[in-house]
Amino acid sequence: MIENYTSKEYADKAVEANALKKMLYILLTPTEFEKTVLDFTTQIVQQPIFNEDGEQIGTEDVEIQVPVMIEKEVPIYDEEGNQTGVEVIKVQSSHKEKYMEDIATLVIAEPNYYICTEDNYTYGDINENLETEKIKNRTLDFYKNFIVTSWGAFRKTPKGYSSAVEAVNTVFNMVNVAQALTEDLATLLIFYEVPDFTKAEQCTEEWLVAHQKKHKACDLQTFMSWYLEFQTVWAKTQYTDIPIPEMEL
Questions:
Q1: How many Cβ atoms sit within 10 Å of the Cβ of residue 92?
Q2: Is residue 211 exposed (0-12), middle (13-18) or buried (19+ Cβ within 10 Å)?
Q3: Is 245 part of a structural domain of the chain?
Q4: CB within 8 A of 157, min separation 6: which ones?
Q5: Does some domain include residue 60?
Q6: Is 247 a member of any domain?
Q7: Cβ distance 57 to 85 under 8 Å?
């Protein structure tokens, strides 16, 4: 592998990737090169065999590699640089061989964008399932923090409460006293729009806050119908590994 960067460049790129909340990849590009290879031939020679006393007791055939020599004409020049003739010399013959080697360059991209062979090394194969995985993760993240009812999404842990159940039951008790969900009581229940999980900009806290809403005032029967729905949805989220009962991924 030929690294087309210095250690300092790698360190600088790593800092840049971290600041962007992205990943630094080492992109490997297979590249064809050519090199000169000297020619050798195999020759069998006899090698003496000696005993422990240093006396030759025989010979054995041994294969050795010897250079392949060829004649080559080289020009002869005089002091003024004019060619005056040629000289034949012997040189070792050679040939060209092609070989492949990876050239490594640095690329910054989002995590899991490339399929890696190991660590952060990649041949540039793009993870075709990345967008599907991102949508799935956004969906899971949302339903870990919200339950969805017909009135909208409700936080599992609203501010000031230990759970959604505590928050809703607090309002439930006041509604029973008032015999209705009054406008004042309705302000205690904050709902949110369910985002489009294919759009990253909608899967942020800022977008959710900008799209929060309150249900309009209603009579006791309407509220009790929703309260029963809430309890049913909440119970389902407590007994399934996937936070959303009807989630399609």
A1: 13
A2: middle
A3: no
A4: 145, 163, 164
A5: yes
A6: no
A7: no
194 and 148 in a common domain: yes
User: Per the domain annotation, does 185 fall within a domain?
Assistant: yes
pLDDT surpasses 60 at 110 = yes
Q: Residue 246: is its pLDDT beyond 70?
A: no
Q: Take residue 77 and report the two structure tokens written for it.
A: 């020049």
pLDDT per residue over 180-216, tens digit each?
999 999 999 999 999 999 998 999 999 999 999 999 9
User: Are residue 175 and residue 228 in the same domain, yes or no?
Assistant: yes
- Whether residues 20 and 59 fall in one domain: no
Cβ-proximal residues to 162 (8 Å cutoff; 6+ apart), any chain: none
Give me 57's structure tokens.
Answer: 């007791």
| CA 158 – CA 167 distance, rounded (Å) | 7
pLDDT range class, residue 54, cuts 50, 70, 90: confident
Give the domain extent around 9: 2-34+98-127
